[in-house]
Automatic annotation (TrEMBL):
Organism: Limobrevibacterium gyesilva
Protein's name according to its UniProt entry: Sarcosine oxidase subunit delta
GO molecular function terms attached to this record: sarcosine oxidase activity
The organism's place on the tree of life at top rank: Bacteria
Listed InterPro entries: SoxD, SoxD_sf
GO biological process: tetrahydrofolate metabolic process
Amino acid sequence: MIRIDCPYCGPRDEVEFAYRGDATVRRPSADAPADAFYDYVYTRRNPRGWHVEWWHHAAGCRQFLKVVRHTMTHEVRQVAPATTVVDVPSE
Ligand SMILES: [Zn+2]
């Protein structure tokens, strides 16, 4: 069980949240080639280690959050509001 410390509600169990994907993907500019949009929609990394993810607190405040989670241990290092700039830790 992952515990996510929502900045609005406090620590909650993972079951209250919905995973919403990779938070490091950026939408290409409107004049970008089709390959850039293909990668934006379909291509995802599968990192082993720290990853910045979108989580939606669906059964709580309904806010989108950025969560820094280790993909092997499920340790959560940081939880921030959606507008916060969050870097992927090197270790
Ligand atoms: Zn919340």
